[in-house]
Structures are given as C-alpha cells and as structure tokens.
Request: fold
Amino acid sequence: MHSMLRTVSCGCLLLTAFHFTAAPFAAAQTGRSRPRGRADLSIPTVEKKDLICFALYTVSDQTLKLTAQLYPLSDEDTKTVRLEIEKDGKWIEAARTAAIEPGWTATFRIENWDDTKSHRYRVAHGAEAFYEGMIRKNPVDKDEIVVAAFTGNSIHPVHGGDISRQDLIDNVKRADADLLFFSGDQVYDHNRHYAAWLKFGRDFGDIIRNRPTVCLPDDHDVGQPNLWGESGKISTLSGAADGGYAKPAVYVKEVERAQTSNLPDPVDPHKIGQGIGVYFTNLNWGNVDFAILEDRKFKTGPAGRVPKQGPRPDHIRNPDYDPASVDVDGAVLLGDRQLKFLRTWAQDWRQAELKVALSQTIFCGGAHIHGSANGRLHADMDSNGWPQSGRNRALDALRKGFAFHLAGDQHLATIFHHGIDEHRDAVWSFCVPSIANLYLRWWEPLEPGKNREPGAPEYTGDHLDGFANKVTNFAAANPEKKPAGNLLNTRAAGFGIVRFNTKDRTITMECWPRNVDITDADARQYPGWPRTISQFDNYNPPSWGKLGELTFNVADPVIQVIEAGNGDVLYTVRAKGTSFTPMAPNGKAFIVKAGKDAPTTVVSENAKVGGDAINVSLK
Amino acid sequence: MSPEKTENRPPHQPTGSVTDGILVSVLRLSAFLCLAGWAWVHLYWEGPYGVLLWQDSTYDFAQWLGISWEEFVGNGVDEGWVQRWISRIGWIYVACAILSLTARKTSDLQMLVLLTGTGMLAVLSYAKYVAAQRQLPMLVEHGGQVLAPALLALALALGGRHRVTVGVAMVAVVTTFAGHGAYALGWWPTPGNFYAMISLSLGLDYDSATTMLRIAGFLDLAVGVLLFIPPLRRFAAGYAVLWGLLTSLARPVAGMSTGLIYWGADQYLHESILRAPHFLIPLYLFLLWRRPRPADATLEPPS
Reply:
C-alpha cells in the first residue's frame, strides 16, 4: 500500500511539476520556438475612421445580404450604418440600418440585386469610417466555380494558431476563389466571441470583403466543446452531451447574428427553443446550388439516451458493443425540417448544374484515434455517424440530388464515399483540414480496407465506421504521430480548394498544407489529393444497372426517376448534354420524367434495367 | 467562543454545544462524499486529466521513461498507460473514501491516505483549472473539496475545535464561495451552466437570472468576510450551508428527467455528491459556533 501510494503521489507531483517546468525545455529540444500563454484577444482601440472591421456578404436569387462588423461604438457615436454602392464614380446610398448590440453587427438586405455585373460597395459609419469591397457578379459564365474551404481556426500559439494567415489570403487570391466556406470553429474562445470574431475579421477580411462567404458556427463558436443542439434545449451537463446549448441564448443569438446574417434567408425561419433562430437555406452561385445545413442544431444529445459505452456519454470505447443499441428511437440528426428542405432542394434544378451540401461535419465517424490522451475511440457520437438512422436519412436525401458534401470540424482532412445499404451507394464528402489544428485525430483502421485502389494505403478502401456505417476512404491527411517541429503542417493543418466544373460536371478536391504557394509547380498537396470525381458518382450504387439510354432534343435536361411501385422519387438530376443513361436498381419498374428545367414530361412509365433506348422531345 | 479557549477541552465543552464527535462526523461525511463522488467520476466516467496528459511535454516525459506512443495512449486492443493510470487513480479514490469512514487518529496509514486524497484532489483541481484556460476562480472554488480530507485528518489529529482545524475549515469555505462568487459576479465569464441551472430550476429569463447571479455572487463574497466577524459568522455559515446545498442539488434537479436512462442519475447525482463539502464544511462551522442556551451559559467549566 505504501509503495503504491508513494508511486501515485510521486506520479501526480511529477506530472504537475513537469507540466509547469519542462514544456519550454521540451520545445527547445525539438528546435521550435513555442511561445507560452494564450492568444491575445483584447479588442484594440481604433480610430473613428477604422470603426468598421470587416463585412461579409452573399448574393442569391437576386438578393444581397451583407453584414458589417463594427468595433464597439461609444455612446456618442451614431448607431446608424450605411451601405453605399458605386455608380458612375459616385457613392449612392443603397440602405441604412442600426448596429445591433450585443455584437455590433449591422445587417443589410437588398432585393432585386443586379447580379449580372460586379459592384463596388462601401460600408459607411458617420463621416469618417468607410470599408470598401466588391460584390462580385454571379459567375454563371464560368465553367469552374472555385470554393476555398476552411475549418478550425485555433489562434492558440501552442497549435501554431498565432502564425500569420497571410499564406491563406495569398492562396485564395491565387485561386481567385468564387466562394469562401468556413465550416465552423472560426472562434475557439468560449466566452469572448465578439473579440475573437473581430480578430477573425482582421485575419480574413481582405479576402472576405471581395467574395461571397459562408460561415457556419459550430460548437466552439457558440462556446461549448461539443454541440448537440436538440432544437434549442438548455444543456447543464459538463461537455453538453445532454443536448442543447450551454451558453445563454443571448450569446448564441449574437454568434449566429455575426456569422450567418449574411446568408440567404432561411427557408423555414421558425425559431427553435430559447428563441434561437435557424439559418439552413440554399445559395445558388455560378449555377452551383449549395444547401447550407445546420447539422448540430437539431441533433439529439446522447447522454442518458443511449446505453453507456465508454468513459464519456458520447464516446464508445468497447469495439464489441452492438452498434444497433445506440441507434435509439427518437434520436435526431438533421431533423424533419431540414430533411423536408433537402427533399425539395434535391428536386429543384433551376439555374443549377451541380448540387453541393455545406455543413459543419461529415456523415460518418471519420477518425479512430483522438488527440486527448484517450487513444483509440471506437466511435464518437459527436460525429455525424450517429445516430445511424438519421445519418442514413441525411445521406439518402443528399444522394437524391447527387449532392457532393463539403465540411470540416474533424481536424483531419478526409475523402469518403459513403454507403447506406451497400458500400459506395451514396454521396462523396471532403472534410477539409484545420487552419491551425487544436486537437489531433487520425484515420487508422485496425484492418486494411477492402477493394482498395492499386497502391493505395491500407487505411483506404471499404470499411465500417464505429457505428457500423458503410464508408469508403480515399484519402486521410493524418498528422504525425508525435507532432514536432513545424506547428502547422506536422499537425496536418491546411485548407481545401474544391473546383466545381459545371461544364464537364466534375468535382476536384485539393487539400493543401499551410505556407505553400499553390501555383508553385513544386508545391505538394497532402497524400491522396487531388482527386476528381464525377457529379454522377454521388449516387451510383455498384449493384445498379442501366435503364435505356435517353436522347433529347435539348441540352442538359432535368431527369427524374421514380419508383413505379410506391411513387418515391429515386433521384433528380440535370443531365449533361443531350443523352443520359439513368441508373437504377435491378428488378423494379420506374417512371422516368424529364424537362428543360423541371421534370414535367413523362418519358417512360415502366422503365427497367436493360430497357430500350428512348428518343425524347422536350420542346 | 474562541478556538483557543476550547482546544483540547472536548470533555468540558459548554452544555448545549455540539459534541466533538458530531463535528468530526460532519467532516467525515464531507470527506467521504467528496472522495466517493470523485471515485464515481474516475471509475464510471473519466478523470479530468486529459488536458494535463495530452501535452507534448508529458509525452516527452513518458518517452523519456521508455514508454512508446502505443503504450502511452493504447492501441485499441489494449489500454495504454494513460487509461490504466486514470483507472488506478479511481481505485485510490475508492480506498480514500472507505478509509475516510474508518480513519482514526491512531492510524498513521489512514491519516496518510486522507492527506493523499487532498493531494490527488489538488492535482485534479489543477487539471480543471488548466482546462478552464487558467481561470483563477476554477482553481480557488475547489478549495472546499481539496481540503475536505485534510480537514478530517486535522479534526482527528487535533480535535474538531482546534483553531487550526477551524481555520482550515474557514479557508475551505471562503475559497469555495469566493470562486463561485467571482464567476457569479461576472469578474470572470459566468459559466453557462450557472444560467442554465437557474433557468431550468426557477424558470427565470436571462435578465432575471443575471440579476440573481449578481446578488448570489455578492453574497458569496460576503460570506467570506462575515465568517471572520464573530457576531455574524454563524449567520454566514448558515447561509453557506443553505446555498451550498442548493447549488449542489441544482445539478440533478436541472438535469435529471424521467425520459433518461436511470432518470439521468448516473449523469448528475455524483455532481451533487462530490460537492458535499460545499455545504457540510459550513455546517461544521455552523454547529461549532452554536451558542449555548442562556441557562447553560452561566455554567462555568470546572477548573
């Protein structure tokens, strides 16, 4: 007993003492200069002319939504903020609004926006403060829409978060991205969102001011380590696994106002619990139709709902557990309102060549080893692999529109091809790497994947994730096992570039480390990237066969395939060119519809795999 | 009643005052519940050491001891050094909790175990402090829990009325309430669960909850001052008993639900149990400072 006590006591003391004293020494041993302490989040005192920190905007369906972010206004300062547009060399006031406190945001909404040309704008406050930028024209004439995607913006020096973002700014400009997507954790400070958001604006404002930007608040943004929003419930449990929001609603509303009030109007604006709003909607830009989802807001918290499987209510350590035991009745992922939206969205192909879902994270358990000294986790209910039924419903809704899924949050860049009933029968996802990686994760299955590509690493191929979801991995930017030296790239930090080619209907995923020049021929992406897929790969189950080829007298018609037996829409998609061969399950009959912009004409009422070709006139 | 005048005189305490045995029993219960609650956390859930263990420096240290990566964090089949170490700590908490019930002045081992319990709780509170981005109130507010086993050891060794015992108990109460008060007053960001517990338990809106928190924070700090003013100290201790009990119970009251497995008891009950020192140490002071009845006060202790 004495020996054990002594051992433990000494262990405790050693750990604490080592924590205090040895970290700087260890840093020196690895040759890095690692500043101690936390990030400086003080709000700078600015001159009146600099009161406007930055501005975000989107344009969709001829409506401009712009949010200006201000530094704190004094009592003497006017609260009125103006939006001016340059016309013929003169600034014309287009709208004015009052800055909202808390958060000092000024939100503008202008209908009947002419998106056929670019406009210079400036946000004005008083007579001195002006902030200029460019509202881009809708790039419908471009063949390739470029999205620069980011996640996980740690600013802590210990993760390299204090290193300049200038490389990201430069590369976005080099890529001339048409849209910026920040998928979550723009802010890691759990108490000072406003101060951190201003810093985010100072870091990224130079690219945000000139291009549409989508920011999705995730758990850390709203001040908690994980988020199962559970339709606005109040969370009391440490870690928030009981579901709901840990911060007062006034804080959550401020965060959402700052980060999402520039998004197109929500399609279903009814508020959730505590009066918290919603922002799920779609953004049509350059003929790419983006569904903007909130995959946390309605999700059920696992604590007390699922049988305990590990040391945390949301963690499953036991690899022998029964995955079905946690797929409990009533557990929600996207929720009925978002699923309803997605089903409608997937059938709407007006001004759309490609469909993309943007959300906080991917629909599977996309990591095995988690960086909190917990080692290997069999499954993590913070991931969208849980609840499985909700995950399958989400993927099923997305694949009906052949939607590609772009997300973040995992701190680990991956490419997955998801499966529901069989491997590879649903959509592809790209989880982009963190800007600076707070928390390390690895995709490292114990068994080699099946059906791997020749020469591909063993971690690729067909797998079951910790919830027994079918996933096929094509790439994973695993960090080094013991990060050392460079604080960013050995921790697998970086960003994603996705090129949506609306002409040939391909999607190219690029995954870049930090501090490279993406136009440099010698610059290398993380292993496994780039990868190009076809839009039609997002719903092409291996077991399916071909219906008869359809030939049209118009280019790019919209095709819809419906199960004749039950009337369920199998999918809707815009064809490429004047011919299209629908794919469908064997042994069933299908109704095929087509139309120029909507599937209004019945082409066949009894189409089957192996059926005859059909010529269709749609004029 | 000053501690100096009563020390080492339990057989001669004024009639009507609480016996030393009762005082020690209150401290014993405080230490036991606190240690048992944390044992539950360690064995059923997980000790909060991740923030300390997941440091490059800690791994460097482990590597220096010849422990490999997989030995350190586990490989999925076998538990790693981290999991085994945390689990063992849980069993030590169990041992400490059991021995807190049986500890006697004459057993050096039992006294050592109690002090070890305080040491382990100190490490634990330091881990929570680091996890809270080194917010001072997080460290300070654990004073009551950290000192609970040591307080029992002192009471056993020196007596429940010894001035050192009383002084440490006052420090335990002051730190606990000062930490909570600093958060409630908003000197450091008020934790969201403070608002959540008030909203769910009392149905107050944000503005009303804020007002209540500010008042509660002020009273928390007032407790720390009034404990040192003899005419008011018993009132302060009494308030601390009530408020400490209510804030401990608020966790299960706000979180438990009949719709949850075990009604959520396994998620929330230990949160109350491990906070037992928040109201039992003030109860100890409240009982200690109980005034003798007027008729009894005329009795002189034998010379």
Residues 2-29 of chain A form the longest helix (28 residues). Chain A has three domains: 48-135, 145-539, 545-616. Confidence is low (pLDDT under 50) at residues 1-36 of chain A. DSSP finds six helices and 36 strands in chain A.
